[in-house]
């Protein structure tokens, strides 16, 4: 504990927002203005509270960003750490932080398919892992559960980055496996580049860029036009 305190640095809260009911997303930058160390998905930081307690929170932003971001659920019946964070870490406040440290590191491998499962505030490390999987172009799926939609942190962000978009627009698309293996959701592509994530098309068929399996594949550019 003492060693971690000796290596702690002072960070300033530069942003704070409500990510869900009872969940605050807090972003830190170094009070000195120096660059923060880079981290890998799965990493966490130690917040040194004035009470002498230490609390660990998973990082869930961009590993190479100039700031560190955490999500904190206010637990009124807990040990008091999350309540202190919610009540005191407003924009401009400072706190000493040690880390990052990682006992849950995720490094996506090509050819491996990933299933991310999270419940409630447990989505915070998973969000960073899913972002890394998307950037690496590997196959993945997220299963995220909560008591209610309003209590699910980062939900809108996750849907924007990873969510089945045509269904949200009210278009019915037949689908069975939802893993890119059965071919039920085959859809003709009229325009745009495809990020193929299915296990059906051959590399030559993928290069033709004229059909995709929309349960898992995504747009590789800013716009994709489908025949629905």
Q: How is this structure best summarized?
A:
By secondary structure, the protein is an alpha+beta fold.
Give the SSE order as H and E letters. HEEEEEHEEHEHHEEHEEE
Identify the CATH architecture of the largest domain.
Beta Barrel
Oligomeric assembly: single chain
Largest sheet: 6 strands, antiparallel
Distance N to C terminus? 58 Å
- Could you name the CATH topology of the largest domain? Elongation Factor Tu (Ef-tu), domain 3
* Class computed from helices, strands and strand pairing: alpha+beta
What number of structural domains do the residues give?
2
Task: Report the strand count.
Answer: 13
Task: Give keywords.
6 helices, Elongation Factor Tu (Ef-tu), domain 3, Ubiquitin-like (UB roll), 20% helix, 3-stranded antiparallel β-sheet, single chain, 6-stranded antiparallel β-sheet, 13 strands, 228 residues
